[in-house]
Amino acid sequence: MAPATLADTLAGVRRQLADGGIPEAAREARLLVGGLLGLDAAAFISGGERALTEAEAGLVAAAVARRLDREPVYRILGRRPFFGLTLMLSPDTLEPRPDTEILVERLIPIAEEIVAMKGRCRVLDLGTGTGAIVLALVDAVPGVFGTGTDISPGALETARANAQLNGVSDRFEALESDWFSAVSGEYDIIVSNPPYIRSAVVDGLDDEVRRFDPRRALDGGDDGLEAYRAIASGATGHLAPGGVVGLEIGFDQKEQVTELMKSNGFQLIEAARDLGGNDRVLVFSAG
């Protein structure tokens, strides 16, 4: 039997994913095959008749089996794009979602303004995971220096590797810390995408999330607000004058988180919704 061509392989993967109940099977097939074989969109057009090697065919078949078992595409590939960066993933890190890019977008003008006034802007990313938020800010705004904290040594190792991969390691440091426990000094921006899902809901999440994202990056306690309490109570002592706190929230948490921050001396200065129209980002100033 002749080896399968790239075009035939792509069509076959699309069919398998669709038959397996995977949404957006055509898009995912391109992501999976292209990512595994190092191909861009043009290669699918110009190289469709190229025959896959036996090793390539085996690589694709194994990846399809993993996706049909509900492992997310980017976890299979081991990396994903985020705000112009390429981020490596690990079992210790949450996979960054496009909704989190909205938080980065809202903070960039603030960081630029602080750099213009002070010459530099210090950013503290609590529960940094892959480093997505802080590394995106460091990359986007010259003059931003970032610290990413996490309780997971594995996550911090991944964040350091991502800083190196994206050429910003000279302006990034990783710190093992349970929220503010090991943090010292003041920061111009304190940011976090903390665990905010209620404990009782976690086990009912889609397989792609429940089985492959670390639970402690998802579980926000009985009411989903445990992390926000820790952030609200600790931020005052580490926020520089004129600084802000930027938070990603669950779709139904705007009022609760706003009241929690207010009770700790903060005021809401901006709120933003995600692409689905849900409340997703809150930005606070002190006093």
From TrEMBL:
Residues 10-78 form the Release factor glutamine methyltransferase N-terminal domain. GO terms for molecular function: nucleic acid binding; peptide chain release factor N(5)-glutamine methyltransferase activity. Its EC number is 2.1.1.297. Keywords: Methyltransferase, S-adenosyl-L-methionine, Transferase. Belongs to the protein N5-glutamine methyltransferase family. PrmC subfamily. PANTHER family: HEMK METHYLTRANSFERASE, MTRF1L RELEASE FACTOR GLUTAMINE METHYLTRANSFERASE. This is Release factor glutamine methyltransferase. The lineage of its organism: Bacteria, Pseudomonadati, Pseudomonadota, Alphaproteobacteria, Hyphomicrobiales.
